[in-house]
# Entry
Amino acid sequence: MLNMVPSAFKIIRDENKCIQCKVCVKQCANLVHYYDEEKDIVRADDTKCVCCHRCVVLCPTKALTIINYPLDYRQNANWTKNYMDDIYRQAQSGGVLLASMGNPKPFPVYWDKMLLNASQVTNPSIDPLREPMETKVLIGRKPEKLEYDKKGKLATKMPPQVELKIPIMFSAMSYGSISRNAHESLARAAEELGICYNTGEGGLNKDFYKYGKNTIVQVASGRFGVYKDYLNAGAAVEIKIGQGAKPGIGGHLPGEKVDEDVSGTRMIPLGSDAISPAPHHDIYSIEDLRQLIFSLKEATAYKKPIFVKIAAVHNSAAIASGIARAGADAIVIDGFRGGTGAAPARIRDNVGIPIELALASIDQRLREEGIRNEVSLIAAGSIRNSADVIKAVALGADAVYIASAALIAMGCHMCHSCSVGKCNWGIATQVPELVRRLNPDIMYKRLVNLVSAWNHEIQEILGGMGINAIDSLRGNKLMLRGIDLNEKELEVLGIKHAGE
Amino acid sequence: MKRIYAFEDKCLGCGLCEVYCRTAHSKSKDIIKAHKEENIVSGISIEEIMSPKSAFYFALQCRHCKDPKCVKACISGAMYKDENDIVRNNKDKCVACLSCVLVCPFGAIKKNTDGKAVSKCDLCVEVGSPVCVENCPNEAIKLLDEDSEILK
# Structure
């Protein structure tokens, strides 16, 4: 059948700079670059390029540029190139369009429409380089009040908590969807930073049990690799109900990615597709969820906090209230811009709501019901920098999850091709030659650098506000002002407009 | 002494070590001129190992043997071990008889393209430190002491 989908990218090679070293040829898993021996030049097949920049970054003479393919359709504000190309694709394949990473559409990014406060004259700002600045947080259910005995010792029995030195964790990415080396980098970085990473739903390889106190183990609808030792291996257990990139949808790890190691970790046959159903087949109500929460608490002897992760959808606030009442110790809300290894494109691009709005409304609802202390709130779904972290905390989050940012630190260039399994950066692949490209010794340091840098910035911003502990910022919406937002948006966010 | 060690579990096989080796051993020291105008043979080369599950790569270069066969075999006195135990080749003396190429147990010596001398790794003594090690994108080659912890 005639392929009507035009090339997405065009590769421009500066022949004056190209030295025919063939690094690009050897590095492109999509087989874009090839060497023409007869003419002694390196050439490229634009149609296969996914714009991952592996060749651009490794080219020693910087001879390569990749641009969007400069092919225009007749101008039409309704039938845009994206929609027409998708129709060509579906008319050819008859299948559901798959996409990876987060929602790329130009929906409003509320983080960028909120501005932060700083101290001037009437209350002093704090210099974090000279004065203590606390960014440690405890994730878990907090008692309504603290009681002390006559000697002044704490008499209240504290529910289990996870201590994070920085209010940032690496969110769930399963071993299978990402490579073993990527997983190892995340685990080692979490250990050094005193934070947690999340196993995702793919189970936990025996080699990683040693990072247990920095691990959150996930229980999702597929229940891959879940057994007693796994549940007790981590610092907390997370029940995954939904994911921001694909609310209401399960997962599907193709059999090609289920090699010996992945199959052992997931406890499924070698080469079989790993299918996570859309719902948990034992959860059809808040009461059912409560049963699972308490089953997991029993299995972990009430020593581990249980998180429940949901996608940000229309009724998140009411659902969150139910989750808190079902006995969860923390609620994770994943906004619609959160990433994924693979999701149906229409769902990724159209289902769910922005994390900023969901987070603010959940925090507000839990406060109104007087149960905010019963759960910690963790915001996820495209936290891009330290200012986003600060704004999330001010909107009510106890901590945030980052994943896309962590992948970008490890080399991801957001080419949105994870589902193909040929990640040139060694992240979203199980091909041994490609996995080897990601050296955990280098990458864990880059992750530590990134989060440490954010932590420095968080401390600077807090200091500027005259606050010396991240706990004092939580839900402190007076530190936020909206810009370019309408009254309804301000009302949902619970903030005032700039100038007010 | 310090030698360059290759780690095949990290090597991408990209060949950047070869590119930077050629540049460092060029007259111009310019990456583009070195490749377009000078015809230099790299002292390091990427070797491929085929294994049933995947291809492995490693970077091969002179091992700077304790008792170098190439020095013994050299008929013109061009190949010598310097005061730091680095095996080097004096290109002015080399007559390209290729005896060293034949006796090297690692295949680490190569004939120059002009056929007038041979090229091999000199650990970049004139540059300072080995450029292949400095420019490896995945730390797959390292300059290490024989008794380094990493090798144990």
